[in-house]
Amino acid sequence: MKKKILSGMRPSGKLHLGHLFGALNNWIKLQDEYKCFYMVADWHALTTDYANTSEIEENVREMVIDWLASGLDPKKSVIFRQSEITEHAELFLLLGMATPLGWLLRCPTYKEQLREIENKDLHTFGFLGYPVLQAADILLYKANSVPVGEDQLPHLELTREICRRFNNFYGEIFPEPQPILTKSARVPGIDARKMSKSYGNAIALSEEPESIKKKVQQMFTDPKKMRANDPGHPEGCVVFAFHQIYNPDHKTLEDCCKKGQSGCVDCKRALTKMLIDALEPLREKRMKISKDKKLVNDILEDGRIKAGKEASATMKEVRKSVFKARVAEKSNR
Ligand code: TRP
């Protein structure tokens, strides 16, 4: 039996290179070795966007198209939408009963986002409970491993704690899930901050060549390298960060840059070409997939059925353990 993986992403619309190198490439690689469940976390989107849900439908569709174009394969992996499997909500409720408030209040991502996100009221029960819902997502499928980016580690640690506590009260139901960390280099946004749609510094997987060209031109470079033959410092240079990903010969470039033998204009021109070439097949696949109006829905429907089977089996077991068999027998779902 293959070990199981679950991971998810909030539907934020078209994905960017940060998603690809932070998570998606890893998801794709793991498809053969594990039984994978990949989830559109649309309920998690509501934790911050409950007041305006108008974009969620479109965002779900665009994200799934990017998943497929990048190489997630519905023949290998179960691709589904969280809100279609209502067992997530039931397990969320039960886990919530046993989750100490302090664990949630102390969660670093909670404190950080309350501070940083100013245009939305995040003083809600749902936002505080974000990690409990995430724990439900993972435990519902008895996932052994969870591929995540570094930013998600505190959530996974909470899942593990909730898992241990629950197992302690009700018996060994859930395996304790382990993180699979994405090792790849962190891709900066064009302004050198973390790549994020909300910072306006992202390059989309579906970015048009003209727009790629413009964005590379705007990329931050070493401020001390004023002329082409000034010695450069590739460490903090955004253009070099991308060369490290896309240019097999980046070591030579690094040497030349440090010695002042190559200039930023040439370096950007070379990167533009590499990026356009790398994203071209993705854009083509994307276009084909979007033309088929039914495809995404069909894949999500197939995923709903497969994920639903697992979810309902786990919940039968959970109900039985929590209520010591009594209530479980009455429900014949
Ligand atoms: N919190 C994750 C993110 O923002 C999304 C997510 C929801 C998730 N449920 C999950 C990730 C379960 C891994 C496992 O990216």
Explain what you see:
The chain is mostly helical and 333 residues long. It folds into 2 domains: 222 residues, HUPs (Rossmann fold), CATH 3.40.50.620; 82 residues, Orthogonal Bundle (Tyrosyl-Transfer RNA Synthetase), CATH 1.10.240. Helices cover 55% and strands 7% of the residues. It starts with a strand and ends with a helix. Bound molecules: tryptophan. The site of tryptophan has 14 residues, from strand 1, helix 8 and strand 4.
What attributes characterize this protein structure?
two-stranded parallel ribbon; binds tryptophan; 7% strand; Tyrosyl-Transfer RNA Synthetase; single chain; globular; mainly alpha; Rossmann fold; 15 helices; 333 residues; three-stranded parallel β-sheet; 2 domains
Task: Give the helices and strands, then pairings.
Elements: E1 4-9, H1 17-30, E2 35-40, H2 42-49, H3 56-70, E3 78-81, H4 87-97, H5 101-105, H6 108-116, H7 125-128, H8 130-140, E4 145-148, H9 153-170, E5 178-181, H10 209-218, H11 238-246, H12 250-258, H13 264-291, H14 295-322, H15 326-330
Parallel strand pairs: 1-2, 2-3, 4-5
Helix pairs in contact: 3-13, 4-8, 4-14, 8-9, 10-13, 11-13
Bound molecules: tryptophan.
Tryptophan (TRP) binds next to strand 1, helix 8 and strand 4.
